[in-house]
Design brief:
Elements lengths: L17 E2 L3 E4 L7 E10 L6 E8 L7 E5 L2 E3 L1 E7 L4 E10 L9 E10 L2 E10 L4 E4 L10 E5 L4 E4 L5 E4 L1 E4 L4 E5 L3 E4 L4 E4 L4 E5 L6 E5 L15 E4 L9 E8 L3 E6 L9 E11 L2 E20 L4 E18 L11 E4 L1 E3 L5 E3 L2 E6 L2 E4 L5 E4 L6 E6 L2 E2 L12 E2 L2 E2 L5 E3 L3 E4 L44
Parallel strand pairs: 2-10, 11-14, 12-15, 13-16, 14-17, 15-18, 16-19, 17-20, 18-21, 19-22, 20-22, 21-23, 22-24, 23-25, 24-25, 25-26, 26-27, 26-30, 26-31, 27-32, 30-33, 31-34, 33-35, 34-36
Antiparallel strand pairs: 1-3, 3-8, 4-7, 4-9, 5-6, 5-8, 9-10, 28-29, 37-38
Length: 468
């Protein structure tokens, strides 16, 4: 009679397996339909044998990945034996068609391991389309992970030849310049953004016919109007004669559209924004901190917090803008427009700073009772004026009425559609209330290129009668 020892596998739930990588990235940009293979090492560094009850792809047989375990290919494997101090190879394969524009820019899945009821995961990521991929590769404590796209004394141009897909933050270094040319499409992965470090420069040079578009990288129809898909455009202080500029752009579906702040040094040049739409952000449309901003022919719409939160002091001139905040994704408590003159430096010190604001020939309206508030500390000069604007505000008593000149208060502007179309309807009270003094130069034409003539309307769009 012969005897055979039975292999014993531990059921201790405190034991886990180890991996050669926690993420497998397929960083080949495919030029034709094809596939690529990577391998993963799985280790049992324990003193006891283990049985992995399940190794599977999160998306199952719908995944664009497949795996090979012990010479067999598939999507789901069970009861894989892994002896003490031993290891196994798992091969991971992905197949993509980079010219299929229905394919996401990033093809993602997870490889899920279950051992003694413990779940462990390895992330799988592959590039899904022909594009220029900016993948963050550096980290400094206190800042997001980034990749330098314009180094010091370097001027980099992004063109419309291929879309740009950003994973992490694309960084413009000090004394570097990034020029984004007309028609360029920029897609951000979740949590990603564009970051101009102190004294770097961003120049967005779209045209009315071919704007530059900033948006999330989810291409499914259900994400077309989904906010919060990416982080922000973050602009730190500019150096003299090298201010940031954003012309003819669409910035949508993020957390913050534009954050412009004095952070390490004094800001020496203004940010200029022209012919730009900032729409559908879970946080703020524009968030500033002791900055100098000039904005014209712009729309800020549908933000979960403030459409524009101008804090820390600074100088701001808004002309022919439409701020329309009808956010519906959650309960919005903060008004569309907030002014504050308190500046907090990076180490937490507080200062009250001069504040100047001027809004001309504009609309500021939304779906809460009062869309305007201020928080001014005594001491510094704090001045604001609204000229020839349509406003939703309760700040119209005798003490503050000198801040408003020829304005219309608390009358529905009658947009064509208050959720997405901010052209004026036939009976809009914003028609004809503008002052031609503020509609000169490039502001003779609205965001659509329509002439304002000598009777400008308030807002970014001039009313155009429809012929009978």
């Amino acid at each position: 009679m012969s005897c055979q020892n039975k292999t014993i596998y531990s059921t201790d739930q405190s034991l886990s397996i180890d991996f050669s990588n926690d993420t497998i990235t397929f960083d080949t940009v495919f030029t034709a339909v094809g596939s690529s293979t990577r391998h993963l090492m799985v280790y049992n560094n324990n003193d006891e044998n283990l049985k992995i009850s399940s190794i599977r792809l999160g998306n199952g047989n719908m995944s664009q990945f497949s795996i090979n375990v012990d010479g067999e290919s598939g999507y789901d494997f069970s009861d894989i034996e892994l002896y003490a101090k031993d290891s196994i190879y798992i091969f991971v394969r992905v197949t993509v068609n980079p010219n299929d524009y229905n394919t996401p820019f990033f093809v993602e899945d997870k490889l899920i391991f279950e051992t003694n009821n413990n779940i462990q995961e390895v992330s799988l990521t592959a590039y899904g389309q022909n594009a220029i991929y900016i993948i963050a590769d550096k980290k400094i404590n206190g800042f997001p992970k980034f990749k330098i796209v314009a180094d010091s004394l370097q001027e980099t141009h992004w063109t419309s030849e291929k879309p740009y897909v950003i994973y992490g933050h694309a960084l413009i270094e000090s004394y570097g310049t990034l020029v984004i040319e007309e028609g360029t499409q920029i897609y951000f992965h979740s949590g990603s953004g564009l970051w101009a470090y102190s004294e770097g420069q961003l120049r967005v040079e779209g045209t009315p016919e071919n704007p530059v578009v900033f948006q999330g990288d989810r291409l499914e129809l259900s994400f077309t109007d989904e906010p919060g898909q990416w982080d922000r455009i973050w602009l730190m202080e500019a150096r003299e004669n090298y201010g940031h500029s954003i012309n003819n752009a669409i910035i949508k579906n993020g957390f913050i559209g534009i954050q412009a702040e004095t952070f390490l040094k004094n800001n020496m040049a203004p940010l200029t924004i022209h012919n730009t739409i900032i729409d559908n952000h879970t946080g703020y449309g524009i968030l500033t901190n002791l900055y100098n901003l000039k904005a014209s022919n712009f729309v800020i719409s549908n933000c979960g917090n403030n459409a524009a939160y101008l804090r820390g002091g600074g100088e701001y001139i808004f002309e022919h803008g439409t701020i329309a905040n009808y956010w519906k994704k959650s309960t919005r408590k903060n008004p569309s427009l907030t002014f504050e003159n308190i500046y907090q430096d990076p180490i937490g010190n507080l200062y009250a700073c001069n504040f100047y604001f001027e809004m001309n020939n504009s609309i500021m309206y939304g779906n809460i009772d009062d869309e305007f508030t201020t928080n001014f500390y005594a001491g510094p000069d704090t001045t604001y004026y609204f000229n020839n604007c349509l406003l939703k505000t309760k700040k119209t008593n005798n003490e503050t009425f000198t801040n408003f000149n020829e304005c219309v208060f608390n009358q529905d502007p009658k947009f064509v559609n208050k959720e997405y179309n901010y052209h004026l309807d036939t009976l809009s009270p914003a028609i004809g209330i503008g002052n031609p003094f503020y509609s000169v130069g490039q502001l003779q034409y609205d965001l659509d290129g329509v002439s304002r003539g000598d009777k400008p309307d308030a807002g970014a769009y001039q009313f155009v009668p429809i012929a009978e």
